[in-house]
Amino acid sequence: MKVTKTKLDGVLIIEPRVFGDSRGWFMETYNKEKTPQITCVFVQDNQSFSAQKGTLRGIHFQKPPMEQAKLVRCTRGAFMDYAVDLRPDSKTYKEWISVELTEENKLQLFIPRGFGHGFITLTNDTEIQYKTDNYYSPEHDSAILWSDPELGIDWGTTEPVVSEKDGKAPLLNEMVI
Questions:
Q1: Is residue 165 within a helix (H) or strand (E), and if so which, with residue range?
Q2: Catalytic-role residue among 60, 117, 135, 140
């Protein structure tokens, strides 16, 4: 596995080795020994399906003490994945990165605790799978408005398909994290 650092401390792009032949292909999607930079222990796997291109989910995170690190990948279609630094003491606080994850490129994005996460689908019928190092906790579930001008995230559209919850999420400056 090839591991590439990003400008956000701890956020990593993981490129698995893919072995293919006339029958198809095989890859390891996670191997603790081959990714020593990922020190968390994953406890939950999640899968998300979005039927429509332009579906935006995020910016989601869990508040302390139930923060989650995530290892995100695309198993069908394509999406742009975003990590937003929500650590107030970080030198990159409020900065974000995006990485295109597709079923073809098989890239993965590791997002440590302390970051918000969101994505927008680039194709119809997109499936996302991700591992987390903490269990989902409804009491700690939180979100920031996807269009928060303080973050200035370029989603590639100004009219995404969003849930009611995401459309009514507060701005970052209205929250205590």
A1: helix 164-167
A2: 60
Q: Which residues pair with 127 in a beta bridge?
A: 49, 76
What is the C-alpha to C-alpha distance for residues 92 and 59, in angstroms, rounded to an integer? Answer: 17
pTM: 0.96
Q: Does the annotation count 130 as an active-site position?
A: yes
CATH class of 2-18+40-174: mainly beta
Tell me the per-residue pLDDT of 15-38, one tens digit each, with 9 for 90 and over: 999 999 999 999 999 999 999 999
Task: Tokens 């100004």: give the residue.
Answer: 158
Say yes or no to pLDDT of 177 above 90. Answer: no
Residue 30 is among the residues annotated as catalytic for this protein? no
Q: Which of 130, 135, 136, 140 is catalytic?
A: 130
